[in-house]
Amino acid sequence: MLYEYDGSVEVARPNCVVFPRTTADVLAIVKLANQYQTPLVGRGAGTGLSGGALARKGGILAVFSRMNRILEIDIENQRATVQPGVVNADLSAAVANAGLHFAPDPSSQKACTIGGNVSENSGGPHTLAYGVTTNHVLSLEAVLPTGELIRIGSSALDSPGYDLLGLFVGSEGTLALITEITVKLTRLPEAVKTLLAIFDTLDDTTETVVDITARGITPAACEMLDGWTLRAVEAYVHAGFPLDCAAVLLLEVDGVAEAVQQHAEEVADICRAHHAREVRVARDARERDLLWKGRKNAFGAVGRLSPTYYVQDGVIPRTKLPATLRRINEIGVKYGFQIGNIFHAGDGNLHPLILFDARDEAQFRGVVAAADEIIQFCIEMGGSITGEHGVGMEKDRLMPLLFSEADLDVMRNVRAAFNPQGLLNPDKIFPSKKGCGEIHVRPLPLAGAPSA
Amino acid sequence: MTSSAISPNVTSRLSEIVGAANVASDFTQLATYEIDRKLPAAAVRPGSGEEVAEIVEFAASEKLALVPTGARTKLGIGYAPSRYDLALDTTRLNKVIAYDPGDLTLSVEAGVPLAKLAQVLAEHRQFLPLPVPFVNRTTIGGLIAAGVDSPLRQFYGTARDFLLGMEYVTGEGVAAKSGVRVVKNVTGYDIHKLMIGALGTLGVITRVNFKTFPMPLATRGCIARFATAENALDMRHRIAQSALTPLTMEIVSPGVAELFGSDAATRYERAPMPANVISNNEWALTTGYAGNELVLDRYAKDLQSMAKESGTTGVTILAEKLPPAWARKREFIPIALASSPATTIVKMSVLPMRMKEALGAAQRAAESNNLRWAAMARGLGIIYFAILPSDHTEEYRQQVANATSEMQQGCAKLAGHATIPWAPAEWKNTLQIWGPARPDAAQMQKIKSVFDPQNILSPDRFALHL
Q1: Whose CA is closest to B237, among B361, B352, B376?
Q2: Residues B327, B348: one domain?
């Protein structure tokens, strides 16, 4: 049952679930899948938000949670080699004493695995300044669905040849099962300042983000939570968020102490110029952690209020933020849904959370229509359908909104070159040539899974 | 000089696509498209992505081999194409399609010169952190296809880190795209990353989307001189373990000062090299950094004290004299190429802590073969080792082949790799330009087959023993 679900609203049942411990196990599993011509899907912690790790066509689900050893940590060269099942936060914890961390920090980082991060090219709040997973991966060992064991990239930079690594990272488990990953480790900043800017209107909040971006200031993080979401979060986390505001920005600047002081002041000034009611600066690590706890547990908090929510991942040019949030609110009113907004404002990566009751068929149809209308608007603004959650089985039908058949055919041909029989993670990313996909929905079993 | 011959029907068909004025077939014009002593039979200059697709589709139907070109500054990288019927000159694809300073995103055609783009961005105090070799001439498409890096990779990374999307034409003449023009996206495969450094063997790049960056505030440089490479690298390691995040960091070998003071260097930078900042018989560690006055002071203080701890023989902080010094550093490869008739550049890549051994092995390989050399290494573990023979003779060829082979073996022992991006045309077939056979060559062949099944795009320039 558990393995029918992930963090999305999708559901799909595998025929069997296996837990490899070694690369040899993975090779044997792939051999079996070939022998029986059965679909095979890799899975990490199942925190994904687009159904990427669900066995859409049944078959074998290979869960990597037992391949969870950190194989090598090289502090001096700032490298680590891990098995795919290592939990994201565990790697950062293992190198924290040396003043290092693994920079990609999805909100699910206490549960999600690095193999999953690599497959999905995961982001997180701090990817605004530090880049997403693909910017931090150096080398992979992987098993192709044809049974070949391959190694691509290298610990040393600029591995000669085509950038296979750039292709495989973010390929959503459709090209290979990853068995080993070498990543870069990043030095922790000397100084960090976390600010909470409180606003009385949404427009002031979004205009602040536009202004910060336009002035060429890149905070380490720039997250937005609207008032409704804040109240849900505050009831759950007690982070000290104001209950009566329209929205807040959670901003972080980091670097050398001399720069951080100045950047924090600049950011606070911009917030005040856009009528921030108050700009709070976290006084210590405890206050800072509390603010981030509120942000990272927000999806869980919302999950307490609604039987089901549907979270989107559209991206827009940052200058279009004010217009887009207004439009999202109109769409919510039009379809009669509460839509919460908590997202990576600095990247223009939206996460509208549409609350609905999946047991009500009419509501379900409405939520899909509302979600599609939001995505359509993102694309009209020059944006994208997914910034970090992946296409998976949820957004494949939306791909033609962004890409022509020619674009998709090149990608399909690339998939066929490595996954010729389509055994590995079938029916993901690319829409089938005819007909439309369908979202299979289920009520959330518990409070919503954490998300990026 | 060899050149390919094609039928007059080909030029007439090409003229139909792009207009007769944009097809060249006379020798004088074609001579400018030379790659390693080979000339194409015709050069064609499309004015749009659609025309590129038509040309490639036609070439594919006629099985004509074509090489996409930009400013033609980096066609020396890799092997000569095994067949070279058409040069597909992208320089008429020179429009900035969209630039949104407020979003810090950009979409440009492939033939836009980086220098022209830099002017457009500078009006909004923004820039692309790609000061690659031949920066004043290179086109966007060319620098992507050549896969060259720049000093700023220390802080900003390489093009792959801020490339958002691309339009390209496959070897079957299919116009396609990947990525988008927003700063975060995971929609579909990152095909555009495959095109970086592929030397036009997978597709013709027609349009590129980038993230742009705010120009840093005041920039300064620090040059610390040392008696040995070990001292210079010690300072590199201290910086890596500190809170400082410099924009650039290079290790400069003895001999570089002579190159930078030469006439060859003035071709790339007219302003003279500031006196006494690097010495011809010492090593140096250079760092560039930026920020407000407090930050600049902090860097200067910390870098000077780290230099001292690493045993420096002298430190210079550069402010107004920085540009001529940094321009030479950026153009190290072109200057080295212009400094000898048979310059051979080995690009070695190792883990940062293995740079000392790699540099030592390379130095021994060069000196035991009586070869003059100079090196510039990026702090992240990339070493550009220039071998500077004074002639093209067979004796030198043998010595260079020996030395480069020893360097490649040395790198392999250090779990690194070494390629030879630049070498005299007539020596290439006796050198391991792309290094020893790679275990992932079979996977690369799969990619090539998807994008260019007939092998008409820059055939065999890029050979990884496929």
Answers
A1: B352
A2: no
Residues on chain A touching B103 (C-beta within 8 angstroms): 213, 317-319, 348
Q: Please report the pLDDT score of residue A444 as a whole number.
A: 35
Mean pLDDT in residue range A362-382 = 93
- A386 interface with B at CB cutoff 8 Å: yes
Whether A451 shows a pLDDT value over 80: the answer reads no
Amino acid at B165: G
Q: What does the pLDDT look like over B312-341, one tens digit per residue?
A: 999 999 999 999 999 999 999 999 999 999
Q: Rounded mean pLDDT of chain B?
A: 96
What one-letter code names the amino acid at B422?
A: W
> Where on the phi/psi map is residue A127: left (φ > 0), alpha (ψ -120 to 50), or beta?
alpha
Average confidence (pLDDT) over A279-298: 91
Residue A170 and residue B186: Cβ atoms within 8 Å?
A: yes
Q: Do A407 and B381 touch (CB under 8 A)?
A: no
CATH number at residue B32: 3.30.43.10
Lowest-confidence segment of A5-9, A19-23, A82-86, B346-350 by average pLDDT: A5-9
8 A C-beta contact, residue B232 and residue B226 = yes
Mean predicted lDDT score pLDDT of chain A: 92
In a shared domain, residues B145 and B210: yes
- B183 vs chain A: nearest CA distance in angstroms? 6
Find tokens 């993102």 and name the residue: A378
- A148 contacts in B (CB within 8 Å)? 442
Distance from the Cα of A383 to chain B's closest Cα (Å) equals 6
Residues contacting residue B13 through CB under 8 Å, at least 6 positions apart: B58
Helix A202-214 vs helix A257-273: crossing angle, to nearest 10? 140
DSSP B47: S
- β-strand pairing of B86-89 with B66-69: parallel
Give the residue among B148, B195, B196 at the shortest CA–CA distance from B452: B195
- Collapsing DSSP states into helix, strand and coil, what is residue A33? helix
Cβ of A154 under 8 Å from any chain B Cβ? yes
B297 and B313 both lie in a single domain = yes
pLDDT in tens, A258-272: 999 999 999 999 999
Taking only the tens place, the pLDDT of each residue in B11-39 is 999 999 999 999 999 989 999 999 999 99
pLDDT at A5: 86
| Residue, of B465 and B221, whose pLDDT is higher | B221
Q: What is the identity of the amino acid at B406?
A: E
Q: Do B300 and B401 fall into the same domain?
A: no
**Within an 8 Å CB–CB cutoff, is residue A187 touching chain B?**
yes
Same domain? For B248 and B313 the reply is: yes
Q: A141 to chain B: nearest residue by CA?
A: B440
What is the reported pLDDT for A448? 35
User: What does the block give as tokens for A227?
Assistant: 């008032």
Q: Which of A390, A388, A391 is CA-nearest to residue A399? A: A391
Q: Taking residues A358-365, what's their average pLDDT?
A: 88
User: Using 50, 70 and 90 to split pLDDT, how confident is the model at A1?
Assistant: low
Nearest to A166 among B160, B292, B434 (CB): B160
pLDDT at A66 over 80: yes
A143 is a domain residue: yes
Q: How far is the CA of A251 from the CAs of A240, A267, B435, in angstroms?
A: 16, 8, 47
Positive or negative, the Cα torsion across B199, A430, B440, B417? positive
| Minimal CA separation from B393 to chain A, in Å | 29
In this prediction, the answer to ipTM > 0.90 reads: yes
Cβ separation of B417 and A210 shorter than 8 Å?
Answer: no
Kindly state whether residues A19 and A159 are assigned to the same domain.
yes
| Same domain, yes or no: B324 and B225 | yes
Set of chain A residues whose Cβ sits within 8 Å of the Cβ of B101? 214
Chain centroid to Cα A129, Å, comes to 16
In angstroms, the Cα distances linking A400 to A380, A397, A405, B31, B343 are 14, 7, 7, 45, 50
**Residue of chain A nearest B378, judged by CA positions:** A157
Does any domain span residue A277?
yes
